[in-house]
Amino acid sequence: MSPFPPWVRLVIFDADNTLRRVTVPDQPCPHGPGEWEPMPGVRDALAGVRWGPGGLLMGIASNQDHIFYGHLSAEMAQRLLMDAAEAVTGHRPPPGAVRFCAHAMDAGCACRKPAPGLLREAMDFHGVGPAATLFVGDAEVDRKAARRAGVAFLHVADLLARAQSTMPPSRGSESPSVNQKT
Ligand SMILES: [Mg+2]
Ligand SMILES: [Zn+2]
């Protein structure tokens, strides 16, 4: 069962602390393979979603300023983003739908979240408008970027809660009441 509303055609994900989390202490994002793991619970929450032809479209919108600071190449950043998406969803998004900002934090560019540029790029790639797009993220800049792009926002914690509330109760669980925010 999909945790997404029926009007959603395109789901854009933030990456760090949404699809993946870094396993290197004191590092905000992975610089190479083996430096990240899937965010716990998200794979299960998305297990009922069908992606690709006949299903939902996927995009990624991620601030990757560590490219500018020389910690990894743009090619590696893209590969790692696609790896994380595939690990969590079972679907490898098309490269053109994987959008990231490689600029300095203070560059004032039009793509670094909370600017809406990355979300617009992912929507343009798929030819889907804001009314049929949902952005899933974990940070306030994600929420702001969604608002500026005119796109609905779902916090990853709410995605996990929503998925739990639609699952049959497991044995002995005292399923805490879930307040779904809409
Ligand atoms: Mg994040
Ligand atoms: Zn940028």
Number of strands: 7
**Unreliable sequence segments:** 172-182
CATH class reads Alpha Beta
Helix content: 25-40%
Kindly report the CATH topology: Rossmann fold
| Beta-strand content estimate | 15-25%
CATH architecture: 3-Layer(aba) Sandwich
Query: What's the end-to-end separation, in Å?
Result: 18 Å
Mean pLDDT reading: 92
Which structural class do you get from the secondary structure elements? alpha/beta
Biggest sheet strand line-up: 5-4-1-6-7
CATH-assigned homologous superfamily: HAD superfamily/HAD-like
List the ions, cofactors and other small molecules found in this model.
magnesium ion, zinc ion
Report the C-alpha radius of gyration, rounded.
16 Å
Counted up, domains total: 1
Number of helices: 5
Largest sheet: 5 strands, parallel
Oligomer: single chain
The general outline is globular
Q: Which sequence of SSEs, written as H and E, runs from N to C? A: EEEHEHEHEHEH
